[in-house]
Amino acid sequence: MWSERVIAGEIARQTLARKCVVLVDNCNWTGHECDVLGVTTDLRIIDVEVKISRADLKADARKDKWWHRQWGRYNPETKGYDKPPDIARQWPPKVWKHYYALPAEIWRDELIEALPSPKSGVLLISQKPGEFMRVDCRRRATPNKDATRLTPANAVDIARLANLRMWEAYRDVERERDMNKHWRQRTLRAEAYCGAIIP
């Protein structure tokens, strides 16, 4: 039942629609993947990472977006590089607020410890039979006070990407419709052919 697209769609419609002027799915504008990237009305970035399993959530802490990787210096004595330890980030680069969104039925409170940052928020999606999907905030995201606002040029760049994604989605719907029509016609022709040769 749950998929990344379903969860991202509900987050976009229920949680971010009033707060954001632009929403883009599967976006790398920040330099790292955002399942949903939102640009707020005051031109700040909200990054929502969608997870559909506990293992996927736990594995997120290893992503580069959570680490400032440092280059090592050459050590002539060892004839190798001394690599300093990586530094954990509290927020992904350029991000004002970061959330995880996942189905409520896979959430356990001990998963809070598996999150790469205590600053990340948690959104839980649930649906009872015969009801609409519901998004509940399990933990609010802490804002990154150092996150800079987007410039107008940045906002236009992200809006252009959202616009292109919309047209790509329209194209995909048309392709799907054409493909269904094609296979429906082939099925009808095959049924007519079989009906003609089999009494």
Describe the structure.
The structure is a single chain. By secondary structure, the chain is an alpha+beta fold. The chain folds into two domains: 145 residues; 49 residues. Helices cover 33% and strands 25% of the residues. It is built from three helices and ten strands. Strand 1 and strand 2 form a beta hairpin.
Q: What's the alpha carbon Rg, rounded to whole Å?
A: 23 Å
Number of domains: 2
Termini Cα gap: 44 Å
Shape: extended
Count of alpha/pi helices = 3
Q: Strand portion, in percent?
A: 25-35%
Encode the helix/strand succession as letters: HEEEHEEEEEEEH
Helix content: 25-40%
| Largest sheet features | 6 strands, mixed
Overall average pLDDT:
89
Task: Provide the descriptors you would attach to this structure in a database record.
single chain; 199 residues; alpha+beta; two-stranded antiparallel ribbon; 10 strands
Short structural description:
With about 200 residues, this protein is an alpha+beta fold. It is about 35% helix and about 25% strand.
